[in-house]
Amino acid sequence: MTETKTLTLAVFESESQLSRSKLFQWVNLYNENNSDVKIEIVNYLDNYSDSFEAFNQIKVEISAGKGPDMINFGGQYSPLDASSGMMADLYPLMQNDESFDKQDFYYNILESFEVGDSLYVLVPTYRIDSYATANNELLGLERMDIKQLADAYNMLDDESILFPGETKKAVFGMICYGSLENYVDWGEGICHFNSDSFKEILNFANQFPLSLNMANDYSAKAFFTEGRALLYPVSIDNVYGTTRIRTLYGETPTYIGYPLDSGNGNMAAIVDISIGISSTSKNKEEAWGFLRSLLDGEFQDNTESGLPLRISSLEQKLEDAKRAEFDSNGEKVVKERLIFDSEDSVNIYEITNEDAETLKAIISKIEFSMTVDSNLYSIMLEEADYLFNDDRNVDNVADIIQNRASIYINEKK
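The structure corresponding to this sequence follows.
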């Protein structure tokens, strides 16, 4: 009789979150269908007050040659944690798996989560974070850098804005959140926050107000429908995303993405699963078998939040979304809504071929992921506050961020 191996999967979720999670449901199904391998979920938040303490405990265990077989970081994933020796590189396991064919997937999305030349986590479903624009200065561009963004903004009339909620901190935070690929080499563990383009972000953000004074009749939606907002923050987590945005603009805009010095500015982002194999696991092949199952058609076809990596699964979802459905009264079924706070929602019943092709074109060009270390991000926001509130010199603020970030990154290596 074949011995059953038990593999441990570390998670960091409340009990209610865990019970609702797609990963939890998949583990139960996987265990039902496999007699030789069982996955045991270990929720580290059961014994530690927060995820910071839990992460540290796992690091201690792994450094001692122990720890779980797999870790789901979820949305708390940091490339600095994954590349610090905690996690195994998944690429060799992929390459040795004869059943894995990269042609079945949007492989560039997998690659967008690389750290150096290694892949430490699998993100089986993802969303797209970007900026859309219908501005004549930016239309048709494959990408923009911070200077192009500043130039386009400076050409706007007095009635126009960058985006709703444009304060110093919001502009700086939102641009930096998706542009860290400019300034951090996660694999080498070095950063460049004293570069000219980063200083340009600081200067650009500093021209906005510290706080907002909104009129009673303020309408965020009107800024876009009337063409008075330069950028629309975009988050696409299902096949209706490009339809929502086309409906808002009345036409298909340019998905310009985040300002980068090079490369495409549209970002892949984690929805709820970013799972890897710990470097000390003695069951790496079996652990890869479980991770690999997250790429199978059964899982990918049934994703409810996030876009599937498997090409055939996305194609099926797009085809389904193109077909209008009708209820028992012969009325069209609402499949999606365009919603703004305090505004009437707009119903969406189906998508067009153009919407589908737009989405696939965005996906195929993605090069980078939005993987942000929360502590590093906090350092940037904290020091930028001294520029915004105390009128410190931009060069000095950039140098301080560079110094603090370098120390922090070195400590995490």
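The chain has a mean pLDDT of 91.
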